[in-house]
Amino acid sequence: MIEKNxxxxxxxxxxxxxxxxxxxxxLGTMPSVKSREQNFYYGHPRNRFWKLLAALYNDTxxxxxxxxxxxxxxxxxxxxxxxxxxxxxxxxxxxIKNVVPADISVILNSADIxxxxxxxxxxxxxxxxxxYGMTKREIVKLPSTSPANAAFQMDRxxxxxxxxx
Length: 165
Fold this sequence. Notes:
The chain contains 7 helices and 8 strands, in the order βββαααβββαβααβα. By secondary structure, it is of the alpha/beta class.
């Protein structure tokens, strides 16, 4: 990581999560500082991703990385991010620049993904800019589970994200 005017150059740091049975792909932008510290997706304690999925599937909220992986595999959900590296200030999606896109085809060539979902507008926009031309696969934009998306309380998130079921 190289600091430049509050920007840090960040490489993703961990692999996509998927297997040959994955049929849903959820894409974020770039792991937050907390997620990078934990070396796994949606690691910020205030991010509602894991609580949301547990509510949708009427399941308990996975706590450990192993529990989160098992949850996703049981539900045939793949996780990855649109960006493999970029310059970013902290965890701020709005500061992202100098993007190196992730190779999403790794998942699309290995699993029978029936639908791709973006966790937030920035993930959607980055996918459309960097990945759509290569994949030619549509993506559904869902509201971000980030705590920064205060406009969406949990009940609104559950309603919007219900489409993945």
